[in-house]
Write a structure and sequence with these properties.
- With 208 residues, the protein is mainly alpha-helical.
- The chain has eleven helices and no strands.
- The N and C termini lie far apart (58 Å).
- 25% of the residues are buried.
Length: 208
């Protein structure tokens, strides 16, 4: 941030304008084919203004990636420690979070293209998502349940993230399904097997 600039000042607006125009250009042309001169021209600013806020094109790109990751982290972290335990509460919580993630993506399609699909840091957020899904399973006391039906948690979470990523491209961004409808379908695909869970749960209660 430029020295002496205050929040809501013209300087902050200039920085935000640079970020907004960079998102558009990076998503359309790609990182390597977008130049700083393209960004400042689109923002109707000067290159010296650019360097008030960013050391380089890479630092601006990193800023955009961090912004995208923060959005995901806030959704996954909110209310994750609260609520009831058990498979039903886990399924309800997961469906809510997937819906919110899909809504976030619909609201930020260009930022998603950068942060989830094109940047080298995209693997970081996918790995974090895998760990956050596992954390939800553990927090809702469902770890033993999945072990009883011989499901490896990491494989399960990785597969869920892979399906999540694919459905964004083939379904969500193509507007073939609404966010909450797609979240429900994805949860049903992986976790709604109530008959089998009831049998395993009954066996678990007998063993304890």
């Amino acid at each position: 941030m430029a020295r002496g600039r205050k929040i809501n000042s013209n300087g902050e607006r200039s920085k935000q304008l640079l970020l907004d125009k960079a998102v558009e250009l990076f998503s359309e042309k790609g990182y390597h084919d977008t130049k700083i001169s393209d960004i400042v021209k689109a923002a109707n600013l000067t290159q010296p203004t650019f360097y008030l806020y960013f050391k380089s094109k890479q630092s601006l790109y990193n800023d955009l990636n961090k912004r995208f990751q923060r959005g995901f982290h806030e959704i996954m972290s909110e209310h994750s420690e609260a609520g009831e335990r058990g498979i039903e509460s886990f399924i309800k919580m997961l469906e809510q979070k997937l819906c919110l993630l899909f809504v976030y993506i619909i609201e930020n399609p260009r930022l998603t293209k950068i942060g989830l699909f094109e940047s080298e840091q995209s693997c970081v957020i996918k790995s974090q998502l895998t760990q956050q899904f596992i954390h939800l399973i553990v927090r809702h006391d469902c770890e033993r349940l999945f072990q009883l039906i011989e499901v490896d948690l990491k494989t399960l979470a990785d597969s869920l993230v892979g399906s999540f990523e694919r459905l964004i491209l083939t379904n969500l961004l193509e507007q073939k399904s609404k966010p909450c409808e797609l979240a429900k379908d994805l949860v049903q695909l992986y976790f709604i097997r109530k008959d089998k869970y009831d049998i395993i749960q009954a066996q678990f209660q007998l063993d304890n």
